[in-house]
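Researcher: Here's a chain I'd like modeled. Treat it as a single chain, no partners, no ligands.
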Amino acid sequence: MAFLNRDFTLEIYRHLLSELKKAGYSFQRVEDFIQKTVDRVVVLRHDVDLRNWAAIRLAKYEASLGIKSTYYFRIVQQSYSPKIIKQIVDLGHEIGYHYEDLANCNGDFEKAIHSFEMNLAKIRQFYPVKTICMHGSSGTPYDNRDLWKHYKLEDFDLICEPYVSIDYNKVLYLSDTGRRWNGFKMSLRDNVKSSYNYNFYSTKDIIKGIETLPHQVLINAHPEQWTSNLPEWLFVKTFSIAHTLYKIYYRNRKVKEEL
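Model: Modeled as a single isolated chain. Structure tokens:
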């Protein structure tokens, strides 16, 4: 039965983390990795784009394994939740700002940095934020990372933006965008320049290839992608297929024409 082997379940996620631990990997939050990197490490990062309640579920899973990771929250209803953020902080995880201010301000840098500062302050009510990460905003022609061509992270007491600050020729980047691990092929912005040439599709592919991985890996797992039961899995799978087709055949083409 294909459903018995379905990917992107919490059980598969737990299995991935457990196998990485068995292979000798330690786990670090983004801020810890930047400040004091250990030799054989997986940096766990989560962009909370939708269904914020899925983030606390994933955070509890990780905590049960003694693992701490980083959760980036947007300032939108489907992501930002003081109650959920507080719970995740209490579990020992790092919180950061998943910013999209340049896109929301239609490319106006002055308005965008003012918006960024106010939104960062909202997140800092609950955690002393040291790292941030851009939201792709792939429906717009604006790349939120461009803020840092005009401003400096350190001016906001920040030490890292993973897309800007990390050398991916030294760190393997794996993201579950599109509910697959090689979704960078269809993503406008959730991708990095790297000398690595891995092409994992499923989570089981990563598990089978653990011994071939480099000593430093950053995994970006979106909480809403990982499910705990069959009805939820079917819903997310259907949405993911429809959304991916929409991006490939309409939205990505339209945005590229505007760039």
